[in-house]
Each structure stands twice: as structure tokens, then as C-alpha cells.
Amino acid sequence: MAVRVVTDSTCDLPREFQDRHGVVVVPLRLHFQDETFRDRVDLTDAEFVHRLEAGKTPPSTSQPPPGEFERVYRDLLQGGADEIVSVHIAAVLSGTVSSATIAAQEVAPGRIHVVDSRTVSMATGFMVQEAVARAERGESAAEIVAELVTMPPRLGIIALLDTLRFLLLGGRIGKVRALLGTALSIKPLIGLGPDGSVLPLGRVRSRSAGLARLSELLAEHRPLDRCGVVYVGDPGDGERLRSATERTYPGMEILAAHASPVLSTHTGPGTAAYCYLESRSKAD
Hints:
Layout: E1 3-8, H1 15-21, E2 24-26, E3 29-32, E4 35-38, H2 45-54, E5 60-62, H3 66-78, E6 83-88, H4 96-107, E7 112-116, H5 121-136, H6 141-148, E8 155-160, H7 165-169, E9 187-192, E10 198-204, H8 207-219, E11 224-231, H9 235-248, E12 254-258, H10 261-267, E13 272-278, H11 280-283
Parallel strand pairs: 1-2, 1-6, 6-7, 11-12
Antiparallel strand pairs: 3-4, 3-5, 8-9, 8-13, 9-10, 11-13
Helix pairs in contact: 3-4, 5-6
């Protein structure tokens, strides 16, 4: 049984992985006043960060329309797929799951399985990796989904932001509002709750202290099955975090990637983050 995997542009997996395993990526949208761009299609990461830094206000973002998912699903089914597993950014953060669900019901509800990752970025990407590995082993969509729905409690993101400005302007401030009103030099640390909502993890006085604190927070979640680094702007931050993590977890593949423009819109330049998957032994 051929199972194909679909995700969206916020999953932050390397393009080489997507291409090698035939993962279909549906882009979210970025709206700069009267201009609309498809996430990671019409703008490179560098071009987007330049626009973000130069503009007075960040763009708004939106989910792909259901019609785009319909086209993707129909093409895959007509191209030989028996079933589709479609894994997406947390429903609490985006309407992408809703769009995908509407499209699945329209095209072939019994053959298309939409999964709310309840997270974002490379944490969603780890679920995509798991889906791909199981599909390539010949598992059915039902078997794959049964595993995927067990993963969100073990997935996490911890991030250092340069400022809370972008979360505030994007309306994603949530419980992190408690960190507002601090000195401008303070660097906030945030994470995601069980449903994907943004939570405060503390604050530090310098970027170097923040990067060190990220590694300390990551160590609290050992042992890990997977780990990745995501950054916005300076790839040096990603390399520093990856190097530190490779020393702590020798032999583990540590992926590093620039955050998608949609995610970058809400966190801002200077963001550095770990995404991780705790091992089952810790969960047990």
C-alpha cells in the first residue's frame, strides 16, 4: 500500500530530506500590505529577513486555502498513492489543519488522514520524519497515524528571542505577556504548551547567557530520540547550538535549519531554538 506524506512550509525540515523522500510541502501565505507571497516559494529566507528588518511592521500570515490542499491530494491519489498522511502546524497556531481537513473531506475522507502536530517548526518535522520512515516500511496510514498521535507529549521547543515585539505584533503573545514591561535588554525564553500555545520559560540579560540557558533547558529533557536547531537570521547561532549539542549527544544527527518565514514573522530576527523529541524511556 503506497502512503504519501504531506506537510506545510512551517515544518523546517531540510529541503534535501523533503525531495529525497517525496514529501509534498504546501506553503502558508505572507501578506506585506498589498503583496502576498507563498512561504518559502516566492521569497528566500534571506530576502524575507531583510524585508522583516527593514519594515515598520511584520507581515500578516495565513493558512493555505482548502483548494490548494485539494489539488495536492487529488494529484497524489491520481498519481498512485493509496492513502495520504497530512501532518501540520498546531491548530491553535494556524488554520492550516482546518484547511487540510476541509480538503480531505471533499476529496477522499477515507483515504486522507490529517494530523494536528500540536507543535511547529522542526518538532512537526520530526513527526513528518516518523511518518516517512513508517510509510517506506510499508505501514498503512492507520498504523502511521496511531504512532504519530503518541508523539506530541514528547515533542518540545525551547527558544531564545531577541525581543517580544514580533510575538506582540503578531497577536501570539498569550501567557508570555507576563514578560512584558521588563528592561529592553532582557532576552525572553519561551516554549510551547501541550496544545502548541506559547509559554514563558524565563528571561536572561544577554544573548550569550540565553544560548547557554537553552542548552541547560534542553538537558532537562534527556534522554532524547531526536534534536534539531532552528534560527532566524544569523546561521552562526545555529552552528553554535548544534556544536554544543553534538558534544552532549555524540552520534545523534542534529539537524539545523533557518526557521520558515511564517515562523520568523512571529519570533523575529535573532531567534535561536532547540526542537526535540524525548525518548519513550523518559515518557514512561
